[in-house]
Write a structure and sequence with these properties.
It is a single chain. With about 300 residues, the protein is of the alpha/beta class. About 35% of the residues lie in helices and about 20% in strands. It contains nine helices and 14 strands. The protein has helices spanning about 30-35, 80-95, 110-120, 155-165, 185-195, 235-250, 265-275, 285-290, 290-300; strands spanning about 10, 15, 20, 45-50, 60-65, 70, 100-105, 130, 175, 200-205, 210, 230, 255-260, 280. It starts with 7 loop residues before the first strand and ends with a helix. About 50% of the residues are buried. It binds flavin mononucleotide. Flavin mononucleotide (FMN) binds next to β4, β6 and α8.
Length: about 300
């Protein structure tokens, strides 16, 4: 039997314990209620964009039969800024009524859009911002993949700077990254994040871009982008742990880490905490099992 997971304070963000949901599936009031009523320690909503998006067409999600991995090419479906202006106060209230902070994940298509989204969100007294700099599944009108912000150092620096200019350094902020296979790229982004005055934490990692799989009947598992989708689920765990381990070594100590990737049980949580994470998020296994995943982990 593992020791009980303890309350933590991540640079001002108070959590009853270190386990929360990861960004992706939580977009509507009913989803917020579901997480608020679960054993998760916080409610992570989004990612949201300025404009409403229906996401990519065709089959955009696949989970391998033994749940060893997920492949997704959702392309950030969400209801856009206007919807959240109408619903965010209620979402925050639901989370707070259950004693949980609400973290809003935002995804801009330019530094200005991140700033615009951050400003809107901060007006609704959310408890934290997660800047999703790592979405791999956004396709341009001509079908080409959009650049992943966290792989571009200038764009990342400009995004942090422009966002900070608009919302200051008061709002609790975490920056969500794509997984780096180039250790020098990871170090360069860590240096840029370390210089920013607005960043309290780094969330690592988003899905691994451009994975490819066949489904159980031998067809490509997801339709958009010629079948290239992004990898989540259990297969991501050693990659996520590696990102946490490396980032912990190079980031300033005051920037805390939220680990995500392949968490399905209490040992996975403990492994992330041992590698240097302060808290963790769960996405694929939440999609697989619903809020019961939090009960199971908290019980273990
Ligand atoms: C269907 C799906 C949708 C996702 N959408 C988002 C998103 O909107 N924003 C984001 O930052 N990450 C998104 N992610 C990435 C996850 O939050 C997480 O970083 C990644 O899947 C690794 O964690 P996991 O192994 O627990 O799934 C999504 C993942 C999945 C599977």
């Amino acid at each position: 039997m593992s020791e009980k997971l303890k309350p933590i304070n991540i640079n001002g963000l108070e959590l009853q314990h270190p386990v929360m949901n990861g960004a992706g599936p939580i977009k509507l009031l009913k989803h917020v209620r579901q997480i608020a009523e679960s054993k998760a320690a916080a409610v992570v909503v989004g990612s949201i964009t300025v404009e409403e998006r229906s996401g990519n067409a065709g089959t955009t999600y696949y989970v391998e039969a033994d749940k060893r991995f997920s492949l997704n090419s959702k392309g950030l479906p969400n209801y856009g800024i206007k919807f959240y202006q109408k619903n965010l106060s209620e979402m925050v209230k639901i989370a707070h009524d259950h004693g949980k902070p609400l973290i809003m994940s935002i995804a801009g298509f330019s530094p200005e859009e991140y700033a615009q989204l951050a400003k809107m969100v901060s007006e609704y007294k959310v408890d934290g911002l997660e800047l999703n700099l790592g979405c791999p599944n956004v396709l341009e009108k001509d079908g080409k993949q959009k650049e992943i912000t966290s792989f571009n150092q200038d764009l990342t620096g400009e995004t942090l700077w422009k966002t900070q200019q608009v919302v200051g350094s008061e709002i609790w902020t975490t920056v969500k990254l794509s997984p780096f296979s180039n250790p020098l790229g990871l170090m360069a982004i860590a240096a840029i994040i370390g210089e920013s005055k607005m960043v309290n934490a780094v969330t690592t990692t988003n899905t691994f871009p451009n994975a490819y799989a066949f489904n159980d009947v031998g067809s490509i598992a997801v339709d958009p982008n010629n079948g290239l989708g992004s990898l989540g689920g259990k297969a991501m765990k050693p990659i996520g742990l590696g990102q946490v381990k490396q980032l912990r070594e190079v980031l300033p100590a005051n920037i805390r880490l939220i680990g995500v990737g392949g968490i399905s049980n209490r040992k996975d949580v403990d492994d992330y905490l041992s590698a240097g994470a302060d808290a963790v998020q769960i996405t694929t296994e939440f999609i697989n099992f619903g809020p019961a995943i939090f009960d199971a982990i908290l019980r273990e």
